[in-house]
Sequence to fold (96 residues):
Amino acid sequence: MIQILPENLSRHELIGLEAKVAEASNPSHIGISGSIIDETMKTFQIENHGQTQIVPKSGTTFEVKLPGGEYAVVEGKYLVSRPSRRTQKAGGSIWH
Fold:
């Protein structure tokens, strides 16, 4: 299995990773944090202490905790895609 790094984050499954909303066009979303429990083309469902919140990807900047313990900051607009298609994309990464 390929290690999840900031450079290849967009091509991996994100469900199960910890995330925090660092910036958002909707100020009420800033600070939402927890585990990503589901993903659609345009949203993440983030659960924290039994509460689930839906956060749009577009207009939001996420801090995602990688399995190795490091953090990656990613603009949600780069993650807007059907999860199955996003993880199958080949080619260069926007983080290079």
Remarks:
- The helical segments are 83-86.
- The two ends are 21 Å apart (CA to CA).
